[in-house]
Amino acid sequence: MRRELVPAGAESLSYEIREIVVVANELKKMGLELVPENIGDPTAKGEKIVEWIKDEIKKLVDNDNTWGYCDTQGVLKTREFVAEQTNKEGGIQISPNDVYFFNGLGDAVAKIFGFLKREARVIGPTPAYSTHSSAEAAHSGYEHLTYTLNPDKDWEPDVDEIYNKAKYNDSIAGILLINPGNPTGAVIKRETLKRICEIAEELNLFVVCDEMYSEIVYSNAERVKLSTVIGNACGMSLNGISKQIPWPGSRCGWIEVYNKNKDKEFEKYIETILKAKRLEVCSTTLPQMAIPLVLGNPMYKEHLKMRSDKFEKRAKEASLIFNGHKGIRLIEPKGAFYMAVLFDEKLLNPTQTLPIANEQIKKRVEELCSQKHFENDKRFVYYLLGSTGIITVPMTGFYSKLKGIRLTLLEENDEKRQWIFTTIRDKMLEYIK
Ligand SMILES: Cc1ncc(COP(=O)(O)O)c(C=O)c1O
Description:
By secondary structure, the chain is an alpha/beta fold. It has two domains: about 10-45 and about 300-430, Alpha-Beta Complex (Aspartate Aminotransferase, domain 1); about 65-295, Type I PLP-dependent aspartate aminotransferase-like (Major domain) (Aspartate Aminotransferase, domain 2, 3-Layer(aba) Sandwich). It has helices at about 15-30, 50-60, 75-90, 105-115, 130-140, 160-170, 190-205, 265-280, 285-295, 300-320, 360-370, 375-390, 415-430, and strands at about 35, 100, 120-125, 145-150, 155, 170-180, 205-210, 235-240, 255-260, 330, 340-345, 390, 395, 405-410. The strands form three sheets. The protein has an eight-stranded mixed sheet with strand order 2-9-8-7-6-3-4-5, sandwiched between helices. Strand 4 (about 145-150) and strand 5 form a beta hairpin. The chain binds pyridoxal-5'-phosphate.
């Protein structure tokens, strides 16, 4: 080509959660039986969609209006419903005009970072859900700016670090939070969330809070929505139906914008995101129309509680399996359906292996792991895959310096789930022996 085609920052576009699948499929052709533990899709792990929810969706298929385009910002009735739900939380009061629908949060995240001025940076957590960290790095053309989630304090964000970094680096325009967290399953405490909003207000920053898992908080933690602590800061909450119904294939998520009118620049930014959405006409209509019918159904609260209780029980089960062994530790999650099992890094080195019976698979794993700058936890993930067929994601794939793996609590078959956890634990211990 006579011109370079790829923008600066493009190398930051990486999504380890899916990239490992390419390798896994290659090994499958060599005879490996795969056990996917990498993707946060409850339906893929056997969760059955509840009948009354299916019935609501079936009725919508018969309504021809669900087949058409809708308003760019989203179906008005649904935005009214979403605003009403938020207002019931008792914090900031919003109108349907503060709600914007997207084709899943993946789409929203791409626009949030894609239409932010390149020099305006958003500081985010490490470890972080890689869609955010990659999108922020790709938009800026630099390494993602991070603050630490402390595993010794239940992954609580380091508020002093946020304050100091934001105060002394005036390129920082926003603070990103993921609550509950992916990949940690952590739930941010009320006072921490409140303090971060105060910092944002003091330093004139906006807050982006990904609340995709806000309906999956266990009984041992408090669910605190951004809208209840935002105060006078500008901010947005990101939410969707991929994980709570669950319906990830609906590609339906939304942002709620808080205090848009309190800052002209922030207002212009939100308006730009909406204009960008107009170029695409609108987001998926039918799932939006399903939201008031499903989320507003009297049975929905019970549905959410049943799911949260289920994941909480599984988190306790995992904790019993993984904790109490030298060299590895699980930080028990309090929400969502992920958890991180960390290695004691002193016990990792780039020569460790696991036995792989199939020679062809062994050779390929060795070859892959001999690539330059191959992280030690990624090396474990590849050997675990070759040795057992279990697909996991290394913590370093989540913009993390900590070494370990992310697991999900999604497997519905109790026996299989316990086998997966005990096999992974045994392999982790064998690996560092
Ligand atoms: C924290 C978080 N935000 C956003 C998403 C993407 O959601 P969607 O399916 O709406 O694109 C995910 C998916 O795993 C996630 O974990």
